Amino acid sequence: MRLAALLLFFATVFAISRVDGYIEQDVDCLSWHLAVETNNVRNWKLVPEECEQYVGHYMLGKQYRKDFKIVANNTIEYAKSLTLVGDGKDIWIFDIDKTTLSNLPYYARSDAIWLILGHYHTMTQSLTSGLWRELCHQYRGLCVYQTLLPLGFKIVFLTGTAERFKYIRIFNLKAAGYHTWEKLILKEEADQGTSALVYKSKKRTELVDSGCRILGNLGDQWSDILGDNSGNRTFKVPDPMYYIG
Amino acid sequence: MRLAALLLFFATVFAISRVDGYIEQDVDCLSWHLAVETNNVRNWKLVPEECEQYVGHYMLGKQYRKDFKIVANNTIEYAKSLTLVGDGKDIWIFDIDKTTLSNLPYYARSDAIWLILGHYHTMTQSLTSGLWRELCHQYRGLCVYQTLLPLGFKIVFLTGTAERFKYIRIFNLKAAGYHTWEKLILKEEADQGTSALVYKSKKRTELVDSGCRILGNLGDQWSDILGDNSGNRTFKVPDPMYYIG
C-alpha cells in the first residue's frame, strides 16, 4: 500500500514536463496550442474548457518564458544583422499587451483586481472594466527594446487600446522601463469597430507613406504581424490566452 | 536497491509525455520547435544537434500525428463552411512533400533506402539522390483531399520537385490514393535556382491570372503559404525536420 502510494507520487512528479505543474492527460491541448500559434485555428473566443488548466500552467510556468526568450533572442539576432540608414526612419513596431507589457500578475494573484482598482482610481478618477489590462510588469519585450534602442531603431508602439487610456499606457510603459519612443499609436474613436488587422495595417501604411521603413514588428497576435506593410520581418510572441482578429 | 531501480523505471516511464519515448531533459527543444513552427526561426540548415532526438521522437511518435490531425480538422471545417461557385475555378492548393505524401518510412526503417532504390530503379532506370523522397505512405493530407474533392474543390498540387520526376510523383500520388487533380505543377528547368517562396508565388499568380480562385492552401513550409496569392486561407502542417525558404 505504501509502495503504491510512493509510486503514484513519483508518477505524478515525473509526469510534469511540458509545463510546470501540468499533468498531461489530454495532450490534444498541446496540439491546440500549436495550431493556435501557427494561425491554423482562428477566431476562437475562449480557451477550450479542457485546456484551461494547460494554458494556466503554461503561462505561469517556465515554458512560456522559455518560448518567449527564443523569440526575443531571434528578434535581437535579426535586428543586429541590419545596417540602418540612420535618418530617423528606421522603425521597429511593438504591440503593447502581452508583448511589451504583461497582465499576467492579474491572473496570478487573487487579490490583483483590488490592487489595480486602487492603483488606477488615483490615475483616472474612474473605474472601467478595461483597467485590469494595466497591471504590468517587466517583460522579455523589454530586452528586445533595450537592445534595439542603442542600435538606432526608432520605436513605434502600436496598440488597439483606446486613445482615452493614453496616459495610463504612458505611465505603465515608463514604469516598466520603456523610457522613450518615436510614436505611441492608440485607437482613435473613428477607428473603433475596425478589426485589429485592418486598423494596424492602416496605421503602418501611414508610417510607410510618411517615409518610414518598418524593419521589424513584434506582437503576440497574428493580427499584429499580418496585413499591409507588416514589416521586413515579423516575430510572433506566444499567446494561447486570447485571439484578436 | 530494488526499490531504487523500480522508482527509476517509473520516473523514466512517466517522464515521457510531450513526445513518445522522448525524455525531456532539454526543454528548449520545445521552444525551438514552437519558434520554427511560428516562423520566428528562419533559414535554418539543420535541426540543432541537441534536438535531433526530440525531432526524431516527435515525428515518429503520436504527437506529430495529433498535431497534424488538428490542422486537418480545421482545414476541413473551413472548407465545408465555403460556398463554391462551381465553375471549375474553385481551387485548393496542396504542397506534396510532408503534406500530401510522407517520406517518414525512410527515417523509420534502416533498410528503407534499399527498398527505395529497388523500387525506383524499375521506375526511372536511373538512381538519383532525390529518390528517397519518393517512399510515400498515406497521410493526413489524404483525409483533407478526400473531403475537398466531393465538395467541388479543384485540386492543384504545387511542388518544388523537378519536372523530370513527374511520373514518379504521379505514380506515388495515385498509389497513396490521390486519384484525380486539376493540375500538378512541378518546377521547370527555367525555375531551378528560384526560391520556393518566389517560385510558388509565381505559379499561384499564374493560376489567379487564369481566373482561378485560390480558396485554400495547405503546406508544411512557410514558403508554401506566404507570398503572393497565397490563398483566402492557409494552413501550416507541422514540420521541424527541415526549412525551405
TrEMBL record, chains A, B:
<protein>
    <recommendedName>
        <fullName>Acid phosphatase</fullName>
    </recommendedName>
</protein>
<comment type="similarity">
    <text>Belongs to the APS1/VSP family.</text>
</comment>
<comment type="function">
    <text>May function as somatic storage protein during early seedling development.</text>
</comment>
<keyword id="KW-0732">Signal</keyword>
<dbReference type="InterPro" id="IPR014403">
    <property type="entry name" value="APS1/VSP"/>
</dbReference>
<dbReference type="Pfam" id="PF03767">
    <property type="entry name" value="Acid_phosphat_B"/>
</dbReference>
<feature type="signal peptide">
    <location>
        <begin position="1"/>
        <end position="21"/>
    </location>
</feature>
<dbReference type="InterPro" id="IPR005519">
    <property type="entry name" value="Acid_phosphat_B-like"/>
</dbReference>
<keyword id="KW-0758">Storage protein</keyword>
<dbReference type="GO" id="GO:0045735">
    <property type="term" value="F:nutrient reservoir activity"/>
</dbReference>
<keyword id="KW-0325">Glycoprotein</keyword>
<dbReference type="InterPro" id="IPR023214">
    <property type="entry name" value="HAD_sf"/>
</dbReference>
<dbReference type="InterPro" id="IPR036412">
    <property type="entry name" value="HAD-like_sf"/>
</dbReference>
